[in-house]
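Study this protein:
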Amino acid sequence: MDSRAVRTFRVFVVTTAVVAIGLGIVAVVWPRPSLVLVALLFGVYLVVAGALRVVAAVRGHGTAPVWRWTSGVVGVLVGLAGLLCLLDPAVPLVVLAVIAGIGFVVEGVVSIIGATVGHPGSSRVPTAVSGVLSILGGVAVLLAPGLALTVFVVFAGIALVVVGAAALLLLPPRAAVRR
């Protein structure tokens, strides 16, 4: 690989690592505002995506009317969901947390049933313990979805900082570029 390509790659890695570390620190220091910002950006995305879908439905000459109407109706619904996110960003976040909590509980129940019935190649005790922990985690998320989201954002922020720092630490020294 030529030295210019290596330098470009180094700049890319350094830039993305610094951005990851910065975003990670913001997420750890201000988890709730970070969540709200993500929900607002998601709302903007949904409004734009819905509007584009409606425009595509209106201008979709040559497309079967049933598909144009379906696309238009879905576009309106997506746009309305985006407006809901913009009006109250907590709603989609809590819905997401509740869905995750329900998923944990269902996974836990399935694991406990699997431990009871016995899946080939799996150990019953670890599977049952995993099921119980999954149910407890799901119930905790369902009882305190806001706290669960905050904890998630803090852990995600820590992960961003670690990944960014690791990328910087694993970057070959500049002397290696000249060889």
Observations:
- Helices lie at 3-29, 31-59, 65-87, 90-117, 124-143, 145-170, 174-178.
- The chain has a mean pLDDT of 89.
